[in-house]
Design goal:
PQ loop repeat protein; LAAT-1; membrane
Length: about 300
Amino acid sequence: MGSYEIDQPVSGACVDLSSPNIFNFILSILILLGILVSYLPQHHRIISRRSSAGISPYFVLLGTTSGTCAFANILTLPASRRDLACCRELSGFECVAGALGIAQVGVQWSCFMVILFLFLLFFPRTPSDAKSKDEPTYRLAITVFLTSIVHLVLTFLVSVIIIYLYRSRLASWAHFLGIFGTCLAAIQFLPQIWTTWKLQEMGSLSIPMMCIQTPGSFVWVGSLAARFGWEGWSTWGIYLVTGVLQGCLLVMGITFELRARKKGKAGLGGVAGGSNEHANQIIGNGHGYADGDEDHERTGLLGNER
């Protein structure tokens, strides 16, 4: 009887979670793995180039802070807390299936935090006098890193205080995080779009990462919307906005990459054409370098005679 009274407040939600949809479960697992795999090309590109040049510091700052807001949002969202509370009375499989939405956001946040660390670790440390005024400085990179960490700590502390002392305002706090994160995500790609446009190249930014993430963002939005409904609009709205803006950046990056390859092929063609023309001249006069050498010798002799 006591157990029934304890479980009664969340019995409705727990009944829904006790029969997970296999298709949604498999799709959620694939999305989770897709999020993880999609960030690996970006991590590898920065490490292999040993440089984070071409990545906007403000893109990293906005991406990290919006990701922190998104993760804190889904952890404090009433629907998420109900799902986690149901784990006390559900099987392990049912609990994992119900918490996959939280895990997806957590993995995305963790992967972007890795980008933050790699961005600072491999930031170009050239002397300030060798940099143009428009290029970011190492001091700016440190400021971005510290600001992101301070924002993370403050968000965590405020969330804990509201959970334990002001629980009635938890839903409002969750929606505030979602709205704030959406605003940050809405402008996250604007600095990177401007940086990429100014450089006319991708730099250390990974095109394969965006090729995976751009369509994956919309699949993820659909999965989160199906799980949390309109009540969780502040959660999946973030990824809807970022998916659209990332698509714009992807189109720009592919355009610059194709243009660079065309220029490279044209340059190689010009070199080859020049070599063939020179060879034809040699074959055509029947003497080639012999005549040239003879003229050179004559010039030298005339010079000596003078």
